[in-house]
Amino acid sequence: MPVWMQTAALLTLSNIFMTFAWYGHLKTLNAKPWFIAALISWGIAFFEYMIMVPANRIGYTELSVGQLKIMQEVITLAVFVPFSVYVMHQPLKLDYLWAGLCLLGAVYFIFRA
Q: What pTM was computed for the model?
């Protein structure tokens, strides 16, 4: 499997953990004190880091730091939008499309030869 694909797959998995760590507590722990939510989020984030660090190390063998960052941002939006709609029950907005188009521009500029 190509390095960029391994990196993208691992970053996608780590991003799922990250999204739940950052935003999942808003739905599931909103009645708990904030420090309980923080401790649980840190526990979830541990698994995100256990996947993200190897992903970036693998990716850095062929990609620049800038390329890794832009890849991460694209993956973040691709994970966040379904999470927002299906887990948090937020409306799907056209703004997500515009944000995605802006990220495509970033992808073009960071990956062009």
A: 0.90
